[in-house]
Design a protein that fits this description.
Blueprint lengths: L2 E11 L4 E6 L7 H4 L1 E4 L2 E11 L2 E6 L5 H5 L5 E5 L13 H4 L3 E4 L4 E9 L6 E6 L4 E5 L5 E5 L4 E4 L9
Parallel strand pairs: 7-12
Antiparallel strand pairs: 1-2, 1-6, 2-5, 3-4, 3-6, 4-5, 7-8, 8-9, 9-10, 11-12
Amino acid sequence: MEKILIGKIVNAVGLKGEVKVYCYTDRKERFQELGQIWVEKTLCQIQRARYQGNVAILKLEGIEDRNQAEAQKNKGVFIEESQLDQLPEDTYYVRDLIGIQVLQEDGSLLGTLTDVIQNSSQDLYQVELENGKRVLVPAVREFVLDICMEERQMTVSPPDGLLEL
């Protein structure tokens, strides 16, 4: 059973054992559907979930006071792979994209996708070139022509000037 990191406990909330979870997912409301999560290696039942901005505030079974909640600070929050949402067509989990080969339109190897940066108006694919340098390719149809997960390949048409380093 593979566990997927979906957040991190960043603080305790109040006196009754609630924890604040910074979410790595784009749908934090999912905690209400999950029923249970892993806090590091401990399986925890979710009794209640509420939300503030990009954080979830969870009441977990077995965490009854502020001291117990504070003891969870900086621990990772995981779900089992079987709990992942089914994605729409042409949408991928970051973990599935990492490591795929990135080809140019002519079929030549550009490099390997090493990261997906998600803190801008659109995602950016970080590609490590054959020479060890890294470039960022905007994850938009204009530049990403095709993704074939079966062959673990992405075909791109890099923006003008991107490869002239």
